[in-house]
Amino acid sequence: MTDKSNDKHQQRQQKVKEQVDARVAAAQDVKGIFQVITGNGKGKSTSGFGVVARCVGHGKKAAVCQFIKGTWECGERNLLQGAGVEFAVMNTGFTWDTQNKEADTAAAQATWQESKRMLADSSIDLVLLDELTYMVTYGYIDLNEVVSALNNRPPMQSVIITGRAAHRTLTDLADTVSEVRNVKHAFDSGIKALEGFDY
Ligand code: ATP
Ligand code: MG
C-alpha cells in the first residue's frame, strides 16, 4: 500500500469509527431483549443455544423450553443441563406420529406452563423457547397468552423464540429479528442428519 492510499484508508476507518461510536453512545436503554430467530435455513436453534452458552459463561442463569417434535437426544441439553441450565421438554415423540391433536395440545400446554413460570421468574436472565412458533401456528398455544407473558416478564429478562414461520405479532413485538435463509442444505443432497452437528 502506498502512503497516500494508507492515509485514505485511515481517514475512512476514522469516519466509520466515529459513526459507530456515536451509535454506541446513543444506545442508552438497559433492558432484557426479545429476539425471534426464524426462516427456513439451518442455524436457528444453534444460534439460540449459542446465546444460552454466552449467558451461562457470564455466570448468569438461563432456562430452556423445547417444543420439539421428537424425543431424540439433544447435544446442547446434555452439555447445558450439566452447567445448571433448567430444561423443560415436550414429550410428544409418539403423539406427533399419530397426529393426535388432543394429546399434542395437552403436551404443548404442559410445556407452556413451564415457560410461563420461567417468564415470571426474575432470577432467570434468559429464556430460550425453542420451536415455539409451531405451537402458535397449530393453535396448541394461544398467541395472546404468549404476548401477555412476554410483556409482563421481568424487565431485565431476555427471551429468544426460534422456529420457522414466526407469527407477525411476535416479530412485531421483538427487539431483534433474524431470518436464517436456506441457501443449500446437506439433506437435499442425501446426507443424513449427523449426531454432534445436526442434533
Ligand atoms: P439447527 O438446530 O441445526 O440450528 P434449525 O433450528 O435452524 O437447525 P429446524 O427447523 O429446527 O432448524 O430443524 C432442525 C433439524 O432440521 C436440524 O437437524 C437441521 O439440520 C435440519 N434442517 C434445518 N434446516 C433445514 C433445511 N433447510 N433442510 C433440511 N433440513 C434442515
Ligand atoms: Mg430448531
TrEMBL record:
Its EC number is 2.5.1.17. InterPro entries: CblAdoTrfase_CobA, Co_AT_N_dom, P-loop_NTPase. Belongs to the Cob(I)alamin adenosyltransferase family. Signal peptide: none annotated. Gene3D superfamilies: P-loop containing nucleotide triphosphate hydrolases. Required for both de novo synthesis of the corrin ring for the assimilation of exogenous corrinoids. Participates in the adenosylation of a variety of incomplete and complete corrinoids. It comes from Pseudoalteromonas carrageenovora IAM 12662. Keywords: ATP-binding, Cobalamin biosynthesis, Cytoplasm, Nucleotide-binding, Porphyrin biosynthesis, Transferase. The gene is btuR. Pathway: Cofactor biosynthesis; adenosylcobalamin biosynthesis; adenosylcobalamin from cob(II)yrinate a,c-diamide: step 2/7. Pfam families: Co_AT_N, CobA_CobO_BtuR. It comes from the Bacteria. Residues 1-20 are annotated as: Disordered. The lineage of its organism: Bacteria, Pseudomonadati, Pseudomonadota, Gammaproteobacteria, Alteromonadales. This is Corrinoid adenosyltransferase. One of its GO terms (biological process) is cobalamin biosynthetic process. Its main location: cytoplasm. GO terms for cellular component: cytoplasm. Residues 2-24 form the Cob(I)alamin adenosyltransferase N-terminal domain. GO terms for molecular function: ATP binding; corrinoid adenosyltransferase activity. The keyword Thylakoid does not apply. It is found in: Cytoplasm. It catalyses: 2 cob(II)alamin + reduced [electron-transfer flavoprotein] + 2 ATP = 2 adenosylcob(III)alamin + 2 triphosphate + oxidized [electron-transfer flavoprotein] + 3 H(+); 2 cob(II)yrinate a,c diamide + reduced [electron-transfer flavoprotein] + 2 ATP = 2 adenosylcob(III)yrinate a,c-diamide + 2 triphosphate + oxidized [electron-transfer flavoprotein] + 3 H(+).
